[in-house]
Structures are given as C-alpha cells and as structure tokens.
Amino acid sequence: MINSSGIVEGIVVKAYGGFYYVLAGGKEWECSLRGRFRHEKQQVLVGDRVELIPRHGRAGVVEKVLPRSTVLVRPPVANVDQAVMVFALREPDPNPGLVDRFLIAASVNQIEPILCFNKSDLDDDTQFEFTARYGQSFRVLVTSAKTGEGLDQLRQELQGRVSVFAGPSGVGKSTMLNALIPGLKLKTGTISVKTKRGKHTTRHVELISLPEGGLVVDTPGFSSLDLPDMKQVDLASHFPEIAELHGECYFTGCLHDQEPNCAVKKAVESGAIQQSRYLQYLEFLNDLKERRRY
Ligand SMILES: Nc1nc2c(ncn2[C@@H]2O[C@H](COP(=O)(O)OP(=O)(O)O)[C@@H](O)[C@H]2O)c(=O)[nH]1
Ligand SMILES: [Mg+2]
Ligand SMILES: [Zn+2]
Fold first, then answer.
1. Which helix (H) or strand (E) holds 179?
2. Helices (H) and strands (E) in the chain, counts
3. 80 with 70: CB under 8 angstroms?
4. Which residues lie near ion ligand 2 (Cβ < 5 Å)?
5. Residue with CA closest to ligand 1 atom 22
6. Is the bond leading into 228 cis (omega within 30 degrees of zero)?
C-alpha cells in the first residue's frame, strides 16, 4: 500500500541485525529506523504496523509506528489478535491447571484464546473430558499434526489474523506450523535441556505468513506459568462462564466461595458450569488469598 505521499504502510515481521523487515502488499522491505527512534527511546516490535519511506530497491526507512492494540511481553510481539494455546492430549499429558493459567494470561493480555488439543492420534478419550470442560466458553479444536485431523479448522481460525502459538514445549506447535505452511521447516522435537528457570534464551521472533493470509508466531513454549497477581474479586472476570453471571449473586462483590445465595454455585450444581473449572477457580482464589498474607 503506497499512498499519495509515497509512504508505505506495513507490518514488521522480523527484526534482525539492526534491520526491520516490513511486509506490505505481499512484498518485504528491509528497513532502518529514522534516527529519532533512538532519541525518543521508542521500541519497534515485531507485529508493529509502521509507515515507511521507500529508498532504492526494497530498502526503506521506518518513519512512524502506528498505535498498538496489544503488546505481549513473552514473546515480544505487538498487535496479536489471538493465541492458539496448544496442549497435547498425551506425551506430555495435559495439566488442566496449566491450561487454565494460560487462559487467564490471555484474558489479562486481552488476547482471544483458541484451545488446541493436539496428538489426537495418541488419544483414547481424554479429548472428551477437555472439550466438555472448555467447549462452552472457548473455541476448542482437537488436532493431530501427524494425521492432519482438525488442521482445516485451524487454518480457518488463523486466516487473516495475527496469531501466536503458545503452550508447553513438546506438544507439537512447530510440527503443526510446518504442516500448515508448505516449505516451512521449523525445528521440531528439540527440547532444550540447557534452559534454566528464569533465564530466557534469546531467540529471534518472526511473524510467518500463512498461504491463506494471516500471520503466525511460533514460540519455544514454556511448561510453567504463574497465575498473574490480581485482586481476588477480579479473578472471576477471567473465567467467562463465571463472569457471565456477574451481578446475579445476592452479595455484590461475591467471591462465589462461602457466600449464601451465590448464582455461580447454583450454576455448578445444575451443571451449567463445569465443576472442575469451578474447583480450579477456588484453588486460584485461595492462591491469591495466600499471597496477600505474606
Ligand atoms: N503422535 C504425534 N506426535 C506429534 C504430533 N505433533 C507433534 N508430534 C511430535 O511431538 C514432538 C514435539 O513436537 P514439536 O513440534 O517440536 O513440539 P513444540 O515444542 O510444541 O514445537 C515431535 O517429536 C513431533 O514429531 C501429533 O499430532 N501426533
Ligand atoms: Mg517448537
Ligand atoms: Zn457468587
């Protein structure tokens, strides 16, 4: 897209060796930054929508970063529309508490989650437990990067949007992306044993173009994730099926725990809310309470 003043608008797909690679109208521009970015200490992130001024050939200068809708810290990417949260139905076995913490992290970052339970070829019936647990409130896919099950649906979900692939390592994120994008050869099956807790391996982040349109970021994955700190009363807003009943309990500020006449507890009793999700909610609520104590 080149407008009348010769400015091109595009999206930063990777940063490498001091250059920013900007995708615009199907072409990639190799850009440097206008000097004032250094003075103003403004960072340019992968995912940023920018305006550039073309120079010779495919070279350009980034003039301006357009306002961001979202900013992720891990991985550092701007303007992500949705997170595909991949878990394996087996090898490694999924941990529901971890799935729930990923969902809360997405909600806190205001990014739409898509749950993807992969390796269905290895699974007998765990998938039914998980689709029941999450199917009411979230988009849930069951896939196999090996047999191709569910990949067409996943393709549709990714089309035209910016998505980040997240989830523990070894669940099949890279294998899945390789299956979706002909010619892509992301490394798979490599589990880094050297990564120590709290120390992040630097790795360049890249937005990869999908054949159907849309961009994706692969991440190495992390197998633990802390519950973000928040007020106890805010926790329910990150459980859509609980948030839906907001204002229907007898007490304003009801934590849906010991309070009488609680609409959430009634919904759990009637089966409208999955009991396992509610129990996880109570466990997180208790974690938050414990934190306040020290
Ligand atoms: N059986 C089976 N194995 C898979 C599937 N997807 C990935 N794998 C295997 O799981 C291992 C980890 O895959 P990888 O893509 O590296 O996981 P990542 O760490 O999430 O990127 C590799 O050995 C893959 O071949 C699947 O759907 N079914
Ligand atoms: Mg990988
Ligand atoms: Zn309540």
1. helix 173-180
2. 8, 13
3. yes
4. 173-174
5. 189
6. no
Lining residues, ligand 1, CB within 6 Å? 118-119, 121-122, 144-146, 169-175, 188-189, 221
Q: Which of 236, 240, 271, 274 is nearest to 255 (CA)?
A: 236
Q: What local confidence, expressed as pLDDT, does residue 223 receive?
A: 72
CA of 233 to the centre of ligand 3 (A): 10
Asked if 43 and 14 touch (Cβ cutoff 8 Å), the reply is no
Q: Kind of pairing, strands 162-166 and 82-88?
A: parallel
In angstroms, what is the span from residue 162 Cα to ligand 2's centroid? Answer: 18
Q: Which residues surround ligand 3, an ion (CB under 5 A)?
A: 249, 254, 256, 262, 264
Give residue 84 CA to ligand 2 midpoint distance, Å.
13
| Distance between Cα 160 and ligand 1 center (Å) | 25
Residue-level pLDDT at 26: 87
Confidence bin at 41 (pLDDT 50/70/90): confident
The structure's pTM equals: 0.90
- Domains of the chain, start order: 8-65 (2.40.50.140), 71-217 (3.40.50.300), 232-293 (1.10.40.50)
- How far away, in angstroms, is 5 Cα from ligand 3 center? 57
Compute the distance between CA of residue 78 and CA of residue 45 in angstroms, rounded to an integer.
Answer: 6
For residue 203, pLDDT over 70 is answered with no
Among the bound ligands, the one closest to the CA of 171: 1
Say what the pLDDT of residue 209 is. 95
Q: Measured on CA atoms in the order 130, 136, 138, 144, is the torsion positive or negative? A: positive
Reading the block at residue 56, the tokens are 């010779």
Contact 237, 137 (CB under 8 A): no
Ligand 1 atom nearest to 167, measured from its CA: 20
Using the predicted structure, report yes or no on whether residue 219 has a pLDDT greater than 90: no
Alpha helix locations (H) across 43-124?
96-108
Residue 169 contacts residue 144 (beta carbons within 8 Å) = no
